[in-house]
């Protein structure tokens, strides 16, 4: 059975972020992931990990101005300096948190730009990031995100991501395969896993129910079948639980929704 990581940016909304580590550990998680840790000192987060016996398995590099609608900078013209500063900041956090991988978001394709013309810049930025990360023993992940939730995002399909990983050719550049996004954009999840896992290019997997992005047992995907397939395919990484608990911020709502979690 795969190892599961609680995504603290989405789970446990009933708690302040810094208190979610304890809540996840109390529910039996041994690993966590989240989006952006930068509002808090890395040392404070590391102390939470240590206090609750948790491993950090993923977080995101700075995405640009999230509140202004930016969703990454790696494909954006003229943002190279900020992109590089962000990668360095992420690698500093990764060192303090002993986190082996970071998700580098691509960005929303500007309306006056042609996506294909941005590809060389995107790949060059990924190559630079992967080189910096390799020196720190960290993997860089790119994630196809569905175009319903994130219109205009640079990367939306698994084959796009795998072609970019192959083109860049860095051993530590991998794909973050979010089955929620993959189901929305492409479906055929079992065959997608059978096709892509044996390549060794999948660096992390995430799950959520489709279409509401609630618990994995709330929606159209047969996750028990896919968990068994992950074992059959020899996946030894973590599965990130990146969903919004159906009970929302109700006290105990996240824990009450964990009936799907294999124990
Ligand atoms: O939303 C997701 O699925 C991604 O994992 C992310 O990191 C930012 O949106
Ligand atoms: Mg995801």
List bound small molecules.
Answer: ligand LJYKPCYY, magnesium ion
Total domain units: 1
Highest CATH level, the class: Alpha Beta
Strand order of the largest sheet: 1-2-3-4-5-6-7-8
What's the CATH H-level superfamily name?
Divalent-metal-dependent TIM barrel enzymes
The computed structural class is alpha/beta
Strand content: 5-15%
Shape: globular
Mean pLDDT level: 97
Determine the fraction of residues in helical runs and give it as a percent range: 25-40%
Report on the biggest sheet. 8 strands, parallel, barrel
Q: Give a count of the beta strands, DSSP E runs of length 2 or more.
A: 8
Low-confidence spans: none
Spatial gap, N to C terminus? 9 Å
CATH architecture: Alpha-Beta Barrel
What is the CATH third-level topology name? TIM Barrel
Helix-strand topology string:
EHEHEHEHEHEHHEHEH
Structure annotation, total helices: 9
| Gyration radius, rounded | 17 Å
């Amino acid at each position: 059975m795969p190892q599961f990581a609680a995504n603290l940016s989405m789970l446990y909304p009933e708690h302040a972020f810094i208190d979610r580590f304890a809540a996840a550990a109390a529910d039996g998680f041994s690993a966590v992931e989240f989006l952006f840790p930068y509002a808090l000192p890395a040392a404070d987060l590391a102390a939470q990990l240590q206090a609750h016996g948790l491993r950090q398995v993923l977080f995101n590099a700075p995405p640009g101005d999230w509140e202004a609608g930016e969703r990454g900078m790696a494909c954006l013209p003229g943002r190279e300096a900020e992109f590089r500063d962000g990668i360095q900041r992420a690698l500093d956090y990764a060192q303090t948190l002993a986190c082996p991988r970071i998700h580098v978001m691509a960005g929303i394709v500007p309306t006056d730009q042609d996506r294909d013309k941005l590809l060389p810049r995107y790949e060059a930025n990924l190559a630079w990031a992967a080189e910096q990360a390799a020196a720190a023993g960290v993997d860089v992940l790119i994630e196809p995100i569905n175009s319903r939730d994130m219109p205009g995002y640079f990367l939306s399909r698994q084959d796009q991501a795998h072609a970019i990983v192959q083109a860049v050719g860095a051993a530590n550049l991998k794909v973050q395969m979010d089955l929620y996004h993959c189901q929305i954009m492409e479906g055929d999840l079992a065959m997608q896993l059978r096709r892509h896992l044996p390549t060794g290019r999948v660096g992390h997997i995430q799950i959520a129910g489709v279409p509401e992005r609630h618990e994995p047992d709330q929606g159209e995907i047969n996750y028990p079948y896919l968990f068994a397939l992950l074992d059959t395919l020899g996946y030894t990484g973590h599965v990130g639980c990146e969903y919004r608990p159906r009970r929302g911020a109700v006290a105990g709502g996240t824990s009450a929704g964990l009936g799907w979690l294999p124990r």
